[in-house]
Amino acid sequence: MKVYLIKTPEYQTENLIEVCDFLNSFDGTLEFIPSTYEFSEGEFNFLGNTYLKNFEGVKKVLYDNTMETPLSWEQQLSWEQLFSLCNHYRNLFKVEKNDFIVLLTLRNNVTNWFSHNDSTRNVFIQTANWENYIQVHHKYPVAYEVLENIMQSLMHVTSEVFPSQYIHQKPRGCMNDFCEDKEQIILKLQTANICVVCAEKIQEENIDQKIVNQTLEIFEGIRKELLFKQKFRKQVEPVSITINESRQIILPQLDNLEIRLNPLFKTLYIFYLKHTGGVKLNELNDFREELLALYKKLSGADNNNTIEVRIADLVNPIGGSFSQKKSKLNKIITDLLGEPLAKFYRIEGEPGEPFKINIPNNLIDIRY
Fold first, then answer.
1. Residue 59: in which H helix or E strand, if any?
2. Structural domain includes residue 233
3. In this structure, are 224 and 276 located in the same domain?
4. Which residues contact 56 (CB under 8 A, 6 or more apart)?
5. β-pairing, 249-251 with 257-258?
6. How far apart are CA 61 and CA 328, in angstroms?
7. Separation in Å, CA 111 to CA 58, 79, 126, 189
8. What is the pLDDT of residue 8?
9. What is the pTM of this model?
10. Which residues pair with 115 in a beta bridge?
11. Could you tell me if 102 and 222 lie in one domain?
């Protein structure tokens, strides 16, 4: 089943891709596909008002909770407007009716909800203001909302019918807590749970167990990140890093926190963990076969031609692929671990000098 992530113009493509990469780092039936499609302000005039064009003003209003003047009604989008964007994309690209369209937007909605879904597998998610409730990168709660809405749609439950047996007015740490007080969102993110009543509904609807397992694994990944931020936020010394038999990158002393990377990023990262002395960019081509073999083990569905092209780009010293991948990989690690801990786990180096991961050799445990 495919899940297409789309956006309104003010939401940055880089952020959308970060959300998508995080979701795709978990194995499962759901495939998350990022889109760079831009909606036309001419066709959707509600996207072309003064409020949106003044993007610095947008960021100030949405992110500065000390603002005395709230968003006006005209500056908010209705459900009908938000879902019209989903339907336009669905029709334009002939998306299958069983696939999901998820719209990510900085724009407020008229109900001030975190997210909502309709009966045709369209979803919108409000991506701003998460820092008011939880001190992690916004991709984690946004990713949670993606899965929450997919599961609610498959369960045929709706938060419009509230309260109900499956939409809980009183929080219980379940995916389907309503969170009328938006600060209550932290409970279900921390528990990563689906209550017994909702689990029974999932069974009644005969939802694919692979989707359920994938959802729970993503929830657990988010829970671990929250736990790390709360429990280990003052960690300043490096701890051991393990590549286990399943080729997961784990920090055992930090409650088995996992550094989740897509297959190509993981290939590059494991390569540098193995080459503790460092490798220069202009030397990478000498290790092409090693990188190919590792990527083939990690890539799953990618065909051999795609694998070879991606590795060829990666080891090309003048193509820019290495620098781009390294930069994005390092950002993932910094967002996950924060400073100063992240400095030990990034791939760092100066042009012309060896790039390496600055963690002591005795803290690296590669088991596969």
1. helix 55-63
2. no
3. no
4. none
5. antiparallel
6. 28
7. 18, 9, 11, 21
8. 93
9. 0.80
10. 125
11. yes
